[in-house]
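F.,

This is the one I mentioned.
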């Protein structure tokens, strides 16, 4: 059974965060992104961070944050292994802002429809956050917070773009047993970042990279994070 008081609190906290971002004093970017410079000639992009309380598989973990009920979840997808950019990685629905899009919010919703088949009329947009630099692909990505007011079925719409679409219980993401760091070695450099293990009907995924950084920073900002082992290394499923 949904804890309506907790669900309401989660939505209220997300809405407040979006309202602060829209104010005259929006504060810093999320987490580590505050210190990152914008890549030159960055292209605008947007992702939809869609929370809701419809979940056929409620969380196994009882979150410490009272706002996080067992059936509070967030929409994610696994990118196709054949894609040139970030193949196989778990991501939020999203993509580049096209010329025909009115703004980043419109782009995030359009991409979510194209990638997951959701009904946008059931999505309540709470508001965009400050754009985040993604240096590897030279994008400036606007996270758009949203609440699933009237949930609709989601699925893989185009197998050339996505391998899986799923809703993950937030409490399970917060579970210290599902958290760790990922280590990527590229070009003589070592990149460490937060990672999350998630289990779906189709198998296990590691959420890492840009999406992992956003989730980690968002949970910190909302006060939902639980202490976790920052020395635990999660193996990367690199293609």
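My design for it:
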């Amino acid at each position: 059974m949904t804890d309506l008081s907790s669900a309401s609190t989660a939505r209220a906290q997300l809405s407040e965060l979006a309202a602060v971002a829209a104010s005259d004093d929006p504060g810093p970017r999320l987490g580590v992104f505050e210190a990152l410079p914008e890549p030159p000639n960055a292209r605008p992009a947007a992702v939809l961070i869609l929370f809701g309380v419809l979940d056929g598989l409620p969380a196994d973990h009882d979150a410490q944050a009272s706002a996080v009920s067992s059936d509070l979840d967030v929409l994610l997808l696994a990118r196709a292994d054949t894609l040139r950019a970030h193949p196989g990685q778990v991501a939020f629905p999203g993509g580049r802002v096209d010329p025909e899009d009115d703004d980043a919010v419109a782009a995030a919703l359009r991409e979510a429809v194209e990638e997951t088949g959701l009904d946008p009329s059931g999505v309540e947009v709470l508001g965009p956050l400050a754009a985040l630099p993604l240096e590897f692909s030279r994008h400036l990505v606007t996270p758009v917070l949203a609440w699933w007011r009237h949930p609709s079925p989601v699925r893989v719409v185009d197998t050339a773009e996505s391998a899986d679409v799923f809703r993950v219980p937030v409490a399970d993401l917060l579970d210290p047993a599902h958290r760790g760091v990922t280590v990527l070695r590229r070009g003589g450099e070592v990149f460490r970042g937060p990672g999350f293990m998630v289990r779906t009907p189709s198998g296990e995924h590691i959420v890492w990279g840009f999406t992992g950084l956003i989730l980690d920073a968002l949970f910190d900002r909302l006060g939902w994070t639980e202490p976790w082992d920052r020395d635990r290394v999660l193996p990367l499923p690199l293609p």
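The chain is about 20% helix and 30% strand.

Talk soon.
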